[in-house]
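User: Hey, my collaborator sent me this sequence without any context and asked if I could get a structure. I don't really work with proteins. Can you help?
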Amino acid sequence: MARARRPNPVSDCPLTAAIAATGGKWKLILIYWLAESPRQFGELRQLVPEISQKVLTEQLRELIADDIVERARTGPVPAPVLYSLTEYGSTLVPVLETIRHWGRGHIEHFDGSSAR
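Assistant: No problem. I've predicted the 3D structure and written it out in structure-token form, which is a compact way to encode the shape of the chain:
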């Protein structure tokens, strides 16, 4: 069965396309945790306690629609579902590491900034 895909949000701007697929408060954080290992929904809720169940569900659905995350049942219903990065989603890991590295430097840049 073909995967339902979201319409392409842009026609020719790569930055806008990247932000549409990974932007927002939670998507990069979810990708980070899924890059470590596949996770069940409840595990993601524990790892990101500030996210509501509704928003987590929405974000995962969007990541699935963009072929960044896949959802797999581990047995017959009501078996747990595992979320993991797709092969395509794994191409985001180096980008994520670059953003984390920059973020670390950004934190250091402002450490002690009140003394300036």
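In plain terms: The chain has one domain: 14-115. You can pass these tokens on to your collaborator as they are.
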